[in-house]
Amino acid sequence: MTAGAFVILSAIFVLCVFLYMTRDITYYGTNSDNHKWVSAAASAGQWKWPSDMHKFGEKKTYVRDFTVIFLVLLQRLLGDKESNRPLVALAGLSNTITAVFVYFVVRNYFGTVPALFSYALYIMCFFPWMIALLGQHACLGQAVFLLTVLIVQAAGGPFSLFGAFLYFLSGVTFTMMNFSSSSARKLVILVMGALLYSKLTLLTDPGVLLYAILPFFAGAAGLTLFMLLPDLKANIWGYLNHFYFLPNKGNNHFKLYEEYFDRTGHPISKTMRGAGWPWIWKFFGHTVPWQSAVFGAGVIFSAAAAFGGLPDIKPAAVFFAMLFLGFSPVIWGEITRGPQIGRSYLQGLLGMILFIAFSIYRINLAS
Q1: Which of 204-213, 224-233, 245-254, 303-312 has the highest mean pLDDT?
Q2: CB-based contacts of 238: which residues, under 8 Å, 6+ apart?
Q3: Three-state secondary structure string covering 189-230
Q4: How far is the CA of 106 from the CAs of 54, 142, 264, 310, in angstroms?
Q5: What is the predicted pLDDT for the residue at 248?
Q6: Which residue, 323, 362, 325, is CA-closest to 192?
Q7: 31: how many CB neighbours lie within 10 A of its CB?
Q8: Residue 59 has what pLDDT?
Q9: What is the DSSP letter of 238?
Q10: Which helix (H) or strand (E) segment is 288 a member of?
């Protein structure tokens, strides 16, 4: 059995176990966002445009459009338009696809051994499965992100019309990613890194613009426009409402606990979003301790590999670039001022695993 076949079969087994164990899962509260997504998906027969879902989702479907669209398919497949089960099944399926795509993306970049290790780190981690049990959209966003990277990898190489089509398709899936989850924007830098690497040796060639950049942005812009129609103004404002870096945004639930924080002597501001960078280190250390430990070891050993030989700027530049990309989901979350809640940092685990894969590859080269 090949490594790829093992990955796919073992992932299917894990998915089957997950689906069986969650067959009777209920909503985790009343009038939750999950209720609204399920209701919007159940009303798909009344949509004329995809954006019509927002009329049935109490505005909680913005930037979760493709989560709702794929939920429609799961509802019909399972014959269930009322319970939380199809949504949790979609999240579990997305996690499984993410794990498989992690293997293939890493294998294409760094080889089979780092790929198998990365696959194991993800699929055996409790964190993404905890998020799946909540039926969260972040799981689908990650799967579509990795699909985008796989398409970009396939598009690399000499310029061609087929390559241009693949870049166009990657632009389409890039927009799907951003319209799947409000957390998916944390993966934008990683997508740009994959695009840059795919034509790194040809950046000065005029063909890059014609065969890569223009097709990518054409695909992204075309699907974005389609998802915003027919009421462009209302839908644009609906999506902007989910960008926390806008002035005076406090679009989270911390404000519901102002009295509690006042009573305990820790008053919070109207735009409270979390406890800052110290919370992030503590969160990952508690939630993904093994992955965090391996990540830390990877930073140390890959840094030693980069700086341990003769002075050479290239290994050091690659090390810092990969470290930045690994941290980029967390950095982007801080720049855009998203709420500091656990499920919003799932993408940080993915960035961590991708850097670990690079570290294994780099150490193998140095040994």
Answers
A1: 224-233
A2: 54, 59, 62
A3: HHHHHHHHHHCHHHCCCCHHHHHHHHHHHHHHHHHHHHHHCC
A4: 37, 15, 47, 28
A5: 45
A6: 325
A7: 9
A8: 83
A9: H
A10: none
Per-residue model confidence as pLDDT tens digits over 69-113 = 999 999 999 999 999 999 999 999 999 999 999 999 999 999 999
- Dig out the tokens for 322 from the structure: 């990969």
CA pair distance 216, 192, nearest whole angstrom: 11
Q: How far is CA 267 from CA 254, 271, 340, 356, in A?
A: 11, 12, 17, 39
Who wins on pLDDT, 313 or 220?
220
All residues at 6 or more sequence positions from 41 whose CB lies less than 8 Å from its CB, including other chains: 53, 68, 69, 71, 72, 75, 81, 86
What distance in Å separates the CA atoms of residue 267 and residue 63, rounded to the nearest whole number?
31
pLDDT for 269 beyond 90: no
State whether residue 267 is helix, strand or coil. Answer: coil
Amino acid letter, residue 95: N
Residue where the block lists tokens 């269930």: 80
pLDDT, residue 247, reads: 45
Residue 196 CA, distance from chain mean position: 19
C-alpha pair distances (Å), 51 with each of 41, 180, 205: 12, 13, 39
pLDDT of residue 333: 84
Residue 32 burial (CB < 10 Å; 0-12/13-18/19+)?
middle
Q: State the Cα–Cα distance between residues 288 and 290, nearest whole angstrom.
A: 6
CA 295, 298, 303: angle at the middle one, nearest 5? Answer: 135
C-alpha 113/C-alpha 238 separation (Å) is: 44
How far apart CA 332 and CA 312 sit, in angstroms, is: 30
74-106: string of b/e by CB count within 10 Å (b at 16+)?
bbeeeebbebbbbbbbbbbbbbbbbbbbbbbbb
Rounded distance, CA 123 to CA 128, Å? 8
Question: Nearest to residue 19, comparing CAs of 82, 95, 113?
Answer: 95
